[in-house]
Each structure stands twice: as C-alpha cells, then as structure tokens.
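Data availability (excerpt). The following record was deposited with the supplementary files.
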Amino acid sequence: MEMELRPPRHRVAPRAIRWWTAQALVPTMPPALVLALLALLIAPARPWLLLALLIVAVPGLAYVLLMPRQRYRVHRWEVTDDAVYAASGWLWHKWRVAPMSRIQTVDTLRGPLQQIFNLSGVKVTTASAAGSIKIQGLDRRLAADLVEQLAARAQAVPGDAT
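Predicted structure:
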C-alpha cells in the first residue's frame, strides 16, 4: 500500500480564527492592562511604565492579529480509506500522516473556549513514537462524526495497531 504524501485537503472551521484570537488574548492582555493601569496611577514612573507597555503591547498585538490567520492558512486535515492526514502550525509547520492500521484510539477534545465557539478537536493516538495527531478547530458536529468514522475504520483494519 503506497500512501501519497501531500497536503491535506480540508480546512478547519473559520470560527477557529476567533478561537485562536481569544486564546492569544488570554496571555497578552493582562500584562498590558496592568502596565497601563500602573502608568495611570504612578506619575513618577510613567515614562518607564509606558516604555514597558510598548515593549509588551506591540509584539502582543502582532501575535494576536497575525497568529490566528496564519494558523488558519496552515491547518488542514483529511481522512482517506488508508490514512489520516493533518497539517498544523503557524511558525513551524508540521505534516503528519497516520495509516489506519496504526490508529489505537480516537478522542474528542473540547476546552472551555472551544465550547464557546462551538468547536472541537480530534486526537488520533497512534502506535508511533512521534505521538498523536491532533486536528483542532473543527465544527463540533463534524468532529463527532469524524471520531465515529475513524473509530469504525480503525476497528475494521486487521491487527492490533502496534
């Protein structure tokens, strides 16, 4: 069986951009807000606090604005009769292919922010030292269908996935 190494065909849900933006705001906003508040309250230290705010806010803003859109461009997935394909990343891109015969478990992942955006992830655990394949940013219903489909296909393949 020859598997074709190529980029996966399907994009994640467009709502994933908003989810990744919310994720990016969680670590970047509090330090900027604290520095802005301190700059307002402590006049003698204001120039230094504003400088620190600039040093924190500019890269944070770039991260919040650029990372989610770049991830959306990169993240792809596909399931064929023979394998699961996934591409992920934003600075470092990673392509993974897992043959159906190597799949051990298939799980659904839904964190609090994913639930707000009605998104889910699928984690495909394989008999590989490279670890599992994660497909993040899928519509909740699509992810549930995908888990069911992958579990059925993996079970239909003879062997014990080791």
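Summary of structural features: The mean pLDDT is 91.
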